[in-house]
Amino acid sequence: MNAKTLLSLIVHEVTFKYFTASGPGGQNLQKNKTGVQLFWDIGASSLSEDLKNKIRRVNRSTKEAELVQFKSQTERSLDMNKKNAINKLMKLFEAALFVPKIRKATKPTRSSVRKRLTDKREHKDLKSSRRSNKISEW
After folding, report:
1. Phi and psi, residue 59, nearest 5°
2. Is residue 68 part of a domain?
3. For a FRET experiment, which of 25, 52, 79, 131 has its CA 20 to 30 Å from that of 64?
C-alpha cells in the first residue's frame, strides 16, 4: 500500500478549517480566508490498527497522537494552501509506510584486502624513507 491509496481511503475523514492568513497577498488576504488547517482523527479512522500505530509513531504534529493537524498559510490562494496541507499529510503517510532496507553483512573481497595492505605497506615505506634522511652528520 502506498501513500496515495492511503489518502484515497481516508479522504472523507479529513476536515478543513479556513482562516485569514498572514503573509503575502495584500488586500485579498485581509478580505478572504486563505489559510487552511487540516484535521484528521486517527482513532476514528477506518484504517487497520497496524497502520494507525505506524502513523502514531511518526506523527509529530500534535502532542496527543490521536489527532493529526497541519496548517498551511504560505501561499496566496486557498487552493494552494489546501494542496500544501494535503502534501504534508502525504509526507506523513510516506514516512509511516517507509521500510528501511535490511543490511546484509558481507566479507571484503580478497582483492580489496590485498589492495588495502599494499597501500599500507607503501605508506609505511614512504614514511620510513623520510625518517632515514633526517639524520645528518654535522
Report:
1. -65, 120
2. yes
3. 79
In a domain, 38, yes or no: yes
Q: How far is CA 20 from CA 36, 39, 58, 71, 76, in A?
A: 9, 17, 29, 12, 11
Domain count, the chain: 1
Residue 136 falls within a domain, yes or no? Answer: no
Which among 59, 56, 54 has a CA at the least distance from the CA of 70? Answer: 59
At CA 114, angle to CA 113 and CA 116, rounded to 5?
65
CATH of the domain at 64: 3.30.160.20
Return d(Cα 126, Cα 82) in angstroms, integer.
65
Q: How much is the pTM? A: 0.68
How many residues are recorded in the chain? 138
Q: Give the H or E element holding residue 71.
A: strand 67-72
Chunked into runs of 10 residues, the chain (138 residues) has average pLDDT values of: 78 87 72 87 84 83 73 87 90 89 94 97 91 62
Q: Tell me whether residue 4 is exposed, middle or buried, using C-beta atoms within 10 angstroms of its C-beta: 0 to 12, 13 to 18, 19 or more.
A: exposed
